[in-house]
């Protein structure tokens, strides 16, 4: 499995979660063994000049925090993009580290239907209007090379247009939208046919006192013989042992018993968060 994340340029530089996930990328138990980050960099984010949006030259500079290789590639050159993506995939599979592909491109028609980019980016959009669209640019190159004929190119375009037109026509026949068609649940049987969650009942999760006592005793013992333990810790363990003996529990011991009972069934438990390793909570 290879994880691929698709980002916008302004989001990549501006969202804290991007920086946070880079710092998770190499942590034991959290790593995805390398993620490929593809940044669609239209060079204005929404409508803001990069120099007003961030302090570094490239939106991808945030990836330098983990020394991820960053490929800046001209999106008007599809073959260069393919080459770079192949190198990125090979890097990720060889070294199991994150890698970033920065697709340097432009947005021809503004941010959305309501946006007129000439208001905020007049100079840039004068240049963009002069640009030959990437499809035409690449088609002209392939036709000039003799790789495809003009007729083959036109047939492909017509075929794609036909697919879109037919789908558009079919969409007009749909009178009812079924919410359940849009719901994707990893638990079969979680929703009923109308897309509503079923009422759920929990099976009994209690365990025998004998098993609880066993877990309590294990939780208050030291697994290695003749191991010199810190006096503060030995006090905690002693108190835990006393509680088990007296059929009492505090919050920490209750958690211990819950985790212990799950472990006893052979289910892996991973604790994360502050002070987990020293068992403060």
TrEMBL record:
UniProt signal peptide: none
GO terms of biological process kind: tricarboxylic acid cycle
Transit peptide as UniProt keyword: yes
Molecular function in Gene Ontology: oxoglutarate dehydrogenase (succinyl-transferring) activity; thiamine pyrophosphate binding
Record's keyword terms, sorted: Oxidoreductase, Thiamine pyrophosphate, Transit peptide
GO cellular component: mitochondrion; oxoglutarate dehydrogenase complex
Superkingdom of source: Eukaryota
Named cofactor requirement(s): thiamine diphosphate
Ranges of residues in domain Dehydrogenase E1 component: 2-179
Family to which the UniProt record says this protein belongs: Belongs to the alpha-ketoglutarate dehydrogenase family.
Full protein name: OGDHL protein
Gene field: Ogdhl
